[in-house]
Amino acid sequence: MLNQDLFDSLEAQKIVDTLMKGQKDYVDERLEKRETMIVSNGYAWTRPNHIDTAFASADLFEYKLQLAGQTWGYLEFETNTEK
To answer: What does the pLDDT read at residue 59?
Structure first.
């Protein structure tokens, strides 16, 4: 089995930067909600939405909005990893 990279170094760095942006947006909002709401524990479940939104905004991959069950939305990303 060949060991080949799925992404080149620039793509990999962009992915890491995008993950960090999504995480930062999530943490910033959690901190804001902790200060402005009496009950804000439910925001713990929004982390993936912040990361999905960061990736959608970065325009790295094609994506489709999908549902898990009846209410939980998420983005399904498509990438061509053949080189």
So the answer is: 87
